[in-house]
Design a protein that fits this description.
Layout (H helix, E strand, L loop, with lengths): L1 H6 L13 H14 L8 H19 L2 H11 L9 H10 L5 H14 L2 H13 L3 H13 L7 H10 L5 H12 L3 H15 L5 H10 L5 H13 L5 H11 L6 H9 L6 H21 L1
């Protein structure tokens, strides 16, 4: 109980505002536990665990800026073992009243990247009300090892595409398109097609530009949007040509791509040439 003697907060102090009693008690318990095994640790591990306790104490006693900085700091002391205090602090911080602290916690959990961190990030990405934190958690989810093969992560992204915030939708489609190809084919094709028609041009362009999965339904949607592009619709022409790269073209689409070989925009001419070369290669392979 040595820890309790020097980290008891003043309940009337504004520095304690934003940290629930339950959260404080959890960190207090972890801090107290951390003192019991010090004698058996190597010197390097002892230094690391001492720094963990220092950061956790800073979180438990601090205002929102102190707590944010403590969360950022404590991740640096994550090691091969003796990490309960790091993980516990991050878990508590993921429910902090300050959105800045929650965002920092999400980024810390992504760096750790274990199963518990993945599950926590998925929950935040799905349920977080503050849009900035949700956007960060969606982005963080893509970086966690194993998330691309996790079907429940696809469900989180699909839910995100229904947000009224276009930035959330854009980050969600990025997450979908980074998923394992088998999961995309099984769960995400209708969502991808819907996002191709998103009212935000940025979301629609991102969908075409980052799409790698090849599928007949996707091809139909891509060619439909491609055929609707006007001569001066540079961004959408470029994005749909990027999405067409790797498909065997139908005659109507091939003719329009050939016409673009003399387009006044150099990037579009080069993309058209690349699409036609790949189409020719696929045709020869089929023979």
């Amino acid at each position: 109980m040595v820890a309790a003697a020097f980290i008891r907060p003043n309940p009337l102090s504004p520095r304690s505002a934003g940290l629930s009693i339950t959260a404080y008690c959890l960190i207090l318990a972890l801090l107290a536990t951390g003192y019991t095994g010090c004698a058996t640790l190597r010197k390097s591990d002892l230094v690391r665990t001492q720094k963990q306790r220092s950061a956790a104490k800073k979180y438990a006693l601090g205002n929102w800026m102190d707590r944010r900085d403590a969360v950022h700091e404590i991740v640096n002391y994550y090691g091969k073992d003796k990490n309960d205090l790091v993980i516990g602090t991050l878990m508590v911080a993921s429910n902090d009243l300050s959105s800045a602290v929650r965002r920092e916690a999400v980024e810390g959990l992504a760096k750790i990247g274990n199963k518990g961190a993945l599950d926590t990030i998925k929950k935040i990405a799905s349920d977080e009300k503050e849009k900035n934190v949700r956007w960060y958690s969606l982005r963080a989810l893509r970086t966690v090892k194993g998330s691309a093969e996790d079907p429940s992560a696809a469900d989180v992204y699909i839910k995100g595409t229904r947000s009224n915030d276009w930035l959330i939708r854009e980050e969600s489609i990025r997450g979908i398109l980074a998923m394992d190809d088998a999961i995309i084919r099984k769960k995400c094709i209708p969502t991808i097609i819907r996002l191709m028609k998103d009212p935000s041009s940025s979301v629609a362009l991102t969908t075409f530009r980052e799409l790698k999965t090849r599928d007949p339904l996707l091809y139909q949607a891509i060619t439909g949007r491609f055929q609707a592009c006007g001569e001066f619709d540079y961004s959408m022409l470029e994005a749909t040509l990027t999405a067409l790269d790797g498909y065997r073209l139908d005659q109507k689409t091939r003719e329009k791509v050939i016409d673009l070989l003399v387009h006044h925009n150099t990037a579009i001419r080069l993309l058209a040439l690349r699409v036609l070369k790949k189409d020719k290669t696929l045709a020869e392979q089929k023979k």
